[in-house]
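Q: Convert this sequence to structure tokens.
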Amino acid sequence: MIHQTSHPAIGCRRVALIPMLIGPLALVIIVSVVVGAVMLPLSRVVRALLQPIAPGVEVTDVVIVWEIRFGRVLLAALIGAGLAVSGTALQGLFRNPLADPFVIGASSGAALGATLAIVTGIGPVSLAAFAGSLLAVAAAYSIAEMGGVVPATALLLAGAALNTFLSAIVSLVMLFNEQSAYAILNWLLGGLSGRGWPQLRTSMPYVGVGLGVLWMLARPLDALAFGDETVQSLGLPLAWTRMAIVAASSLTTAAAVAAGGTIGFVGLIAPHTARLLVRANHAHLIPASALLGALLLLLADDVARTVLAPLELPAGGAHSGAGRSVLSLFAEDAPTHFGSPAMTRLEARKLTCVYHQHTVLHDLSLTVQPGEILALLGPNGAGKTTLLRALARLLRPRTGTVLLAGANIWRLRPRAVARRLALAPQSEEVSSPLTVEQAVALGRTPHRGWLLPYTIP
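A:
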């Protein structure tokens, strides 16, 4: 379903909400440095941050602010932003509102890598978790591959199966290594205790690269809301697009999990909250999700550090508890969905198309002249959709030729075809509630590229 806003100003107001999130995030960052087992007055925190070596500044304040809290706070914001954006991208890729950063095996792979590192004592735990996460996603991608193609549904199922399998292995390792069980469980619950500048310096490059790539893929993510055929008809390489989204989100998730353990729900709640603010345009949704993810994880970490101070709860547990409550609120009110100006001559010559040894079209020829409107009528199974897919360069016929402006359509580049020919596929629903203007503007992708903003001439 495509939703139309009542006035263009509404969309502008929604986009304006993105920079307005920066203020609350900055405020929560300051509050996060103030609160903890030892409460510091705001004036002392500001002096320790801005003038750490000035006369009169307490050494203990500098140690608490710079060495213990500030690095941890920035790390929490980075992890929250990374997980939120990864969840946003995977929800768009799978067209599934329940997809999160861990849906294709990232969390279970990281858990197994960290578990083995804890038990054997070989190598840093964070490095093992990072490698395990990437290897698990690569395994899920390989399992889902079918004849050089990786269908989104197959990848989702492969990730779910791999999650179950690897989680079972982690449970077995814990069962036979009781001495390490507490350390493993503590890592699995997720948290930022004892983490700070070293983890921030290690994870920031990977999370930064992943976030940048996913933001650059905002236009393909919008197109995926309409289905695979829309992506192809816009001249975008479907396989490469899907692989790039999976790779960037997996890199981001792996770095975040390696730094903070498995912290659930932030990658599920932040994207849904962001959609309430800026709707479904991923160029706006991704930065909004990043800001909200950072905000949510900072608040969860503040609760974990203060509710039982000086004891500290795992941030993952605190966030999961709050996440279930917030998610129930979404569930109560969840929606049911989640060329040139002149027409170019299009000609089909003696087309024969076969599905599973069954001939759907046989020796069919037709010509559509510039300015002509042609209607296809026939019962279900007559081959109307097959013909449209063959004319749109989405289905290669067994025999015959399709000519676009006199050129063989299969010898043209996909983007060149998309500039002259568009297909509006028959679809029951669209997973992202784009406005009418945004949906129409997708048709300009072959002309403007997928990095430029939406515009309609």
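The two ends are 24 Å apart (CA to CA).
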